[in-house]
Amino acid sequence: MSAAVRRKPPVRTERRFFATAARGLEPLVADELRALGAKDAKEERGGASFGGPLAQAYRACLWLRTANRVLMPLARFPAPDADRLYTAINRMPWENDLSPDGTLAVDFTGSNEKIIHTGFGAQRVKDAIVDRFREKSGRRPSVNLEQPDLRINVHLHRDIATVSIDLSGDSLHQRGYRARGVAAPLKENLAAALLLKCSWPESVKQGGAFVDPMCGSGTLAIEAALIAGDVAPGLWRTRWGFSGWRKHDPQLWDHLLQEARRRRDAGRDKIPVILGFDWDSTAIDAAQTNAERAGLITSKDAPPEGEWQKQQGLIQFECCALADNVLPAGLTPGLVVTNPPYGERLGAAGQLGPLYTELGRWLRSQCPGWRAGVITGNPDLAKLVGVRARKINTFYNGALECKLLQFDIEPERFMRSVDV
What is the mean pLDDT of residues 13-26? Predict the structure, then answer.
């Protein structure tokens, strides 16, 4: 009998969940959860907790733009050493969540005096689970690190272990539309966070256009279109952490997918003009491919070379150096957000100064009346833009601290330096 046939009845009781987030994004995740109708969403270190039925957790998986994962905590107990950890894990009724013929993976984070290495902690958790299955049924699940039926998350803080099921599976930044990338791509959930911090949804309501003059593989432009068009960022993913879970409710999930597809179809006409430019033709090809996979542009949408279509609902990309970039006439002033290189991986910072100076000139000449956001990991380079930021936010691109500088593009307010 297959694992699907043996699944238990769907979980319909309310419980607490936790959406993990990169450092600095916790408030945005909490705000998103409240907008999704989650009960008692609370910003916490490393993410946001929230309550509700299973449907709320499914909705979070499908719709959260700035989170990393959605976890369903099962237990919390003292684990001062490996033996206590093993015993507590072994006593949990894992047969309710996973078939003995299924697969599992264990993610272990944190440490204490006795459990120093995360690999050792993960091994003890895995041993405790498979030993229980052997004792109960004489069979045991196998390990599959890539696409397990059940991904188990254990976080050890001091001597307390929190055990959860990872409902998202892969990180939520992996939307499913990225087929091609470029060097040092911006993660999708960080791109969405930048757009939300720059008040892109408010600009959409006013009909403002969006421009990324150094778009790379198009992540900011695509995420801007998804937000504007009310498109769930998880619609392209075909597998989730709950896909092989014994308590998964396929009918409930299908209902939420259908709802998201209706919203996507209704929102296409709400997408304003979105433009992406880059000097690298390989990057533009990647951006075009990714946008096509996201359903935001088709080959027939592409305008003739050198011409721009002003039809709404399309992302348009063009290979163009910043110095040669002249925005088409008739655009409604909106938002510019860009992620220029800052020397961490794409080249020495000392060679990038002229690019930042040129960016400041371009903003002054092409975007008066617009708002802009520039993210950089190098404050010295940011000063070369020659703009005084009205607001600065701190984010983390992996372990690297970055600053999001927000500007109002008004020529009389441009200064020689910016405090960062």
Answer: 94
